[in-house]
Give the backbone structure.
Amino acid sequence: MIVIFLGPPGAGKGTQCKLLVDRYGLKHLSSGDILRRERKEGTNLGKQAQSYMDSGQLVPDDLIVAMMMKEIQTAGNSGGFVLDGFPRTIGQALELDKALEEADKEVDVVLNLRVDDIKLEERIVGRRSCSRCGAAYHMIFNPPQNDNLCDRGCGPLMQRADDTAEVVRNRIKNYHELTSPLISYYSQTDNLHHIDGNVSIDEVTAELLNIMDGILQDT
Ligand code: AP5
């Protein structure tokens, strides 16, 4: 199964994708996580992506498409995957369609998580993650038991460099200009499902499971 998770920055895509991984055995292909890994490893791609990411701009399509195609090929023979943060432009979506067609595959589900702009900044600025295991927290909505430590006891929490209020506004602006057109692109298929992401994490999860279980029953 191939799932695309659309939504603005901070909507809760990563939070909900973890559930898709656990429940449906899908591989989580997050373009943001892959880019952060490349940066940590100091690769050429990581170095090229750094200034775009830190200022809230999109990394150029050619770099992202090459990176994601490699990941998709590797995941190709597994039980399926969920794309989180890719595609993010119409150009990326066209390249993805072309590659899937060549591999005789297609996208099964496109999930569009809708969240009002006013909530996004609050969610992003309060986000923290464990510097060792990557577990995600929010200082208000999903706080750790001990102020700055991971509940699993493995390490201190960190904040992403692009999670400042100023950079977040740039990311939201770019989402509206470059990524939101994907909603009408995928509305030309019958795979697109909208999810209200303005509610609590558990309520979003319940709606997501409802949609996914419905789709799996019909297949
Ligand atoms: P990326 O890492 O993909 O960032 P993003 O899309 O901006 O998304 P986030 O990871 O910030 O948010 P999320 O929706 O996953 O929210 P989360 O679940 O963490 O990309 C980073 C950068 O990489 C981009 O800016 C760009 O430069 C580059 N890049 C990546 N992909 C690219 C591409 N395809 N093309 C070009 N450039 C690319 O939740 C956020 C917080 O809210 C958490 O603290 C969580 O606990 C909390 N939360 C979640 N759900 C709820 C809820 N329902 N109620 C209350 N709180 C909630």
